Amino acid sequence: MFLHAPALLFASSGPPLAAVDGWQFAGGAAALTLIAATFGKVREFLTHLTRIAIVSVNVRGYQAEAVLLELRSSFRTSKWGPKSYLGWMLHVRPVRRVQLVPMEVTPSAGRLWWRGAGWRRSAVWVRRGESKDEEMHDGLTCRNWEEKPLTLLFLRGTLDSDDLMARAAERFNAFEARHKPPRAVGTPCDSSTAPPAIGAA
């Protein structure tokens, strides 16, 4: 009886084992809730800092094609990294038939473009939306970007997005003017707009 007294004394002192487990479970749940809430606040703070430091610009419509033309003309890109190619069945006017036309497009994973050197270098990360397979086979060109916008990401202060859009539109308009023939205005029966006949005085 004496030998078992310490064991009985230890068993009789303190709360029951089930109560201890309950308090431990409640404390662990409270700690996890606090950690989750703190992590959420930290993530919101980091997201806010990221939005301050990094500018995100979405470009749609014909302006997306103009921006791609400006990037290929005035910026440089690395030969490394992912590449994406498409092949469309298009009518080729010089050969007067429909044939496969392969072309490289901006990958959905994105690509880095830059210009300048040293501390004056301007870098922009460009990525595009996903394309559906049926749209690719139907011959959808890069002119239709309503559902597949370009996304430009760059450090704040390194690039002026308004200036980039203006220069891209100017280059695109000049490119379109060089590669589209002029069209006469008027109707076939309107003699005032018809060109003079050959040999006419």
SSE inventory with pairings:
Layout: H1 5-12, H2 17-53, E1 54-59, H3 62-74, E2 76-77, E3 84-92, E4 97-105, E5 111-115, E6 122-128, H4 133-137, E7 150-155, H5 161-179
Antiparallel strand pairs: 1-7, 2-5, 3-4, 5-6, 6-7
Work out the strand percent: 15-25%
Strand adjacency order, main sheet: 1-7-6-5-2
- Look at the structure and give the mean pLDDT: 73
Question: In which range does the helix fraction lie?
Answer: 40-55%
**Rg:** 33 Å
Distance between the termini: 140 Å
- The parts where pLDDT drops under 50 for at least 5 residues are 197-201
The coarse overall form would be elongated
Total number of strands: 7
> From the helix content, strand content and strand pairing, which structural class follows?
alpha+beta
Describe the biggest sheet? 5 strands, antiparallel
Region (Disordered): 179-201
Signal peptide: 1-18
Keywords: Signal
Outline of the structure:
With 201 residues, this protein is an alpha+beta fold.
Describe the structure.
With 201 residues, the chain is an alpha+beta fold. The protein has a domain at 54-81 and 108-179. The protein is built from five helices and seven strands, in the order H-H-E-H-E-E-E-E-E-H-E-H. The chain has helices at residues 5-12, 17-53, 62-74, 133-137, 161-179, and strands at 54-59, 76-77, 84-92, 97-105, 111-115, 122-128, 150-155. Strands 1-7-6-5-2 form a five-stranded antiparallel beta sheet. It has a two-stranded antiparallel sheet with strand order 3-4. Strand 5 and strand 6 (122-128) form a beta hairpin. Helix 3 packs across helix 5 (161-179). 9% of the residues are buried. Residues 179-201 are annotated as: Disordered. Keywords: Signal.
